[in-house]
Amino acid sequence: MNRLFRTLLGFALWTVLSLFCQSALALSPEDQPAFETGKTLFEAKDYASAFEIFTELFEKNPEDPDINFMLGRSAFQLGLLEDALMVYDRMLILLPDAHRVRLEMARTFLGLGAFESAKYHFQKVLATEPPLMVKKRIEDYLRAIEKATQRHTLSGELKLFAGWDDNPVATPRDETIAIPAINNIRVTMNKKEEDHFYGEYIRLSHFWRAKNPKIAYHTSFTNYSLFYDTESSKTLSLTSMDTGPSFSSGNTSFKPQIGFTHMDRHHTTYLNSARLSFIFNQKPTPATQIHAVLSAEYRDFKDDTRDARDVALDITPFVGRKRVGFGCRLRYENENAENDEFDLNRIEAEPQVTVLFSKGWLFRLKGTYAWSRYSARSHLFLKRRTDHLVAFTTAVSRQIWQSRQTSKRLSVGLDYRWTRTTSTIELYEYTQNWVQLSGSWTF
Length: 443
Hints:
It is built from eight helices and 16 strands. It is of the alpha+beta class and 443 residues long.
């Protein structure tokens, strides 16, 4: 009898505290309809619209716990975890015994990968003897944290894709090309033909955590295969591996890595390479990030005259705010080949915007500009080659399932890319349209 009484009392206290955190202050009559609309949209999983409504209400009623709580939940569902965390932290200062808020805060810490903080708040809620269903849910989360913080972790991604390419062999725009080294004789190019392709992408990563939480060791394996229906010469398979330690302090991490790549084209070895990379990552604020990679690579081609030493620097600043993110990858590359005709300097800029919508929809727009300057004159065209490449990519994807306790998720996507090149040598001028449909499993 006493046990039943304690159970009923615990459930009653949980309910009262949960209701208190949602109803401690009554909404004004003019705001009540908007609040109910926001709740309806949230329950219909239109989190983006709900977030906008609760944000407007919060600006008018910053201390209202009802509004704060729903604002935090909407932000969490949109992946705006830092925003949700600030809301819950503000609420717990005013309502330290609001266990439902603490539970949501623990889930948010878990989503951010702050496992110790998540564990602390889950255990505090568990100590209040919540209802059985809530208790089991918290125990599931704690098991997930234990698994995520184990010293050895394996993660990965499997992607299957298929699509259409209207110019797989990069056929020049001009039907005939003049060859200056052979008395300007004009050579007729093959007709531009479209083709269908399919393939797979596999990434496996192993993460080993040292006893010192600032030190870890990463190893990743990648395989990419692409097959064309008729243009078998464009079939390729690429396998690579990178491995090395990582050192982190606060919001900064540094990873020196060595890597190897093997590439086949048309089922024949095309390239083997070895590289050394230094990867730097910093998050000055929760909404900003800077990613930089300095790499040196030796490339051994099937054609020995193409063998080269390559040095590249990539810098990518990123800014994210609410549902919109913006980044721009800047790259400089110098390739020094055995044959001077393949020596080049290349500069690339790749701005990208991502927008997160409700129900797991993500839109991405990316632009690419690359300028390439070759060092020596072409022996056929009797001049130095300079290329300009412009490309635009639009992509839409949707996450159709995600585990509540782990990082497992399933998503589908559709990509379209348009590419155009101009060059001082007509042979390298072409346009291309490319469409891809894909499905991805991440674990």
